[in-house]
Amino acid sequence: MPPEAPLSAAEPAREAARAQLERLWARGRDFLGCEAAIMGGAMSWLSERNLTAAISNAGGFGVLACGSMTPDLLEREIAATQALTDRPFGVNLITMHPQLDDLIRVTLAAGVGHVVLAGGIPSGGAVRAVKDGGAKLVCFAPALVLAKRLVRTGADALVIEGNEAGGHIGPVSLTVLAQEILPHIREVPIFVAGGLGRGEAILAYLEMGASGAQLGTRFAAAAESIAHPNFKQAFVRAAARDAIPSVQLDERFPVIPVRGLANDGTKRFLAHQAETVRRYQAGELTKEAAQLEIEHFWAGALRRAVIEGDVETGSLMAGQSVGLVTSVQPVAAIITELVEQAVAALASRHTIATPL
C-alpha cells in the first residue's frame, strides 16, 4: 500500500484559518441557526420565496421582505418559502405598515423564528408581540444612542447599515458606524451591512466585534433571483461610482435618500423636481400637492426595473458593492466565495507566522 501523501504546507494554515473564522462568527451562526453568519438583505420584489430559500439552503440566512404585502399575501409567501427550504429564515417587516400587528401575528403563527423590524424604531407593542410570540427580534441601529435604546427595549440582535448600501440609506458610512457602535455594544450580536462584497471585508468587521454580515446587492444579481435579466446585467456592467443617492433640489421639498444606479430615470427625476418647484412658485400647486408630485415620481419604478426589466426609467436600487458584481452566480457560489476569501486572508497570516 503506497504511503499517504504528506500534507502541503498550506493545508495546516487553511485548517487553522477555517477554525478561526468559525470562532469569529460563532455567535452570529448560533443566533441565526445557520452555517455561515451571512444574512440576505431584505429587498422589495427580490427577497421573495426563491431567493430567501436559496440563501438559507446554501448555508446563509435568507430574509423574506414583506414590504407592502397584506397579511394574507405574507402568509402565502412564508408557506411557499417553507416549501422550498427546511432551514431557518427570517421575515422583514416595515414598522410603518398599517397592518403591522396582523403581519407579526401571521409570521409568528407560521413558526418563523426571527423577525426583523425595519424602517423606524419599533413600538413597545410590536417588540412585546414578537418576543411574547417566541421569536428573536432583529432591529436596525443607525447610531450608538439608538443601538443602546433598542437593546434596552428588547432587541435580540442589531444590524448596522452604512450608507454604502442600496435602497433607503442613512447618512453615515459603515466604517464610521462600526467604530461608533461595535466597541460599545456587547450584549447582543451585531451584523454589519452596506458596501460588503468580499470575504476579507466581512472578516475585518468580525475582528472588530461584529457577529456576522448582511449582503443585498450581490444576492440581487444571483442566478436564483427573480430579477429580470436586464436588471442583473445592469449590475454586472455597473461600477461602484454608478450607485448614487437620489438628489434633492429644494430643501422645502425633502427627498428620502435612496441609492441606486444612475439612469435616464434619475435624470428625469431631477427635471421633474425642477418643474414641480416651478409650478409651486407659480401658484399652480400647493406645497402639499407639490410634495406628493415629487414623492409619487418613483411609484412602481422598482417593480418596472426588477420584474419588467425597464433599466432605463425604472429604479435600480443598488449598493456601491455593485462594482464587485462581475457575473451572475448561484447563491451557493457567492457564499462559498465569501467564506473562502475570508479563510484565505486568515491562512496567509498563519503561513507568514509559521517558521520554515
UniProtKB/TrEMBL annotation:
Key words of the record: Dioxygenase, Flavoprotein, FMN, Oxidoreductase
Pfam families (alphabetical): NMO
PANTHER family: 2-NITROPROPANE DIOXYGENASE, 2-NITROPROPANE DIOXYGENASE-LIKE PROTEIN
Transmembrane feature ranges: none
Keyword Flavoprotein part of the UniProt annotation: yes
Name the record gives this protein: 2-nitropropane dioxygenase
Listed GO MF terms: dioxygenase activity; nitronate monooxygenase activity
InterPro entries registered for this protein in UniProt: Aldolase_TIM, NMO
